[in-house]
Amino acid sequence: MRVRRDVSSIPVRSASETWECLIDLVTGSGSKDVEQLRRAAGVMGSIITDEHPARRAIMLEGVGAQLRIYLRYRMKALEEGEKVDSITWNPTEGDWRMHVPCDEENIAWVKKSLAGCPRIKVFDVAEEDRADDDESVSVGKAEGSIVVDWNLKG
User: Fold this and answer.
1) 68 contacts 61 by C-beta, under 8 angstroms
2) pTM higher than 0.85 for the full model?
3) 71: Cβ–Cβ under 8 A, 6 or more apart, which residues?
4) Are 67 and 91 in contact (CB under 8 A)?
5) Digit-coded pLDDT (tens) for 75-112
6) Which of 99, 93, 4 is nearest to 60 (CA)?
7) Helix 15-26 with 41-49: angle, nearest 10 deg
8) d(CA 37, CA 35)
9) What does the domain layout of the chain look like in residue ranges?
10) Cα separation of 41 and 50, whole Å?
């Protein structure tokens, strides 16, 4: 199962404020290796500023559902404001991995910079989304996974 959250970033929040908001969203009592998220702040600020998480989600896999976080920018961020819907579980409570999008031009230095944060993995923003094609993730249905989009309007 996948759950989506959309978070307003620049200009509603700075890149560093956005990263702090994401840390607050995905951590809580019992979280493991939170210091890796804090150490990644500078690199994540760059990724957030480059607006890659608008096109490709920051994915967190661990306890519970896969969490996909998309960032909103410019007018969309202003229209939606600062509200962030909380999640009902702590995805960093046990064994977890975060996958963050990066462009090909910067991926080498980003990987090198995150070498001390083994729970945070980088993927090329231009790559096909591996999770969309992964039929091994299923909940209650043999043919695929259940996707919960709390931001559906209409």
Assistant:
1) no
2) no
3) 6, 7, 8, 9, 18, 48, 51, 53, 54, 58, 77
4) yes
5) 999 999 999 999 999 999 999 999 999 999 999 999 99
6) 99
7) 120
8) 5
9) 2-149
10) 14
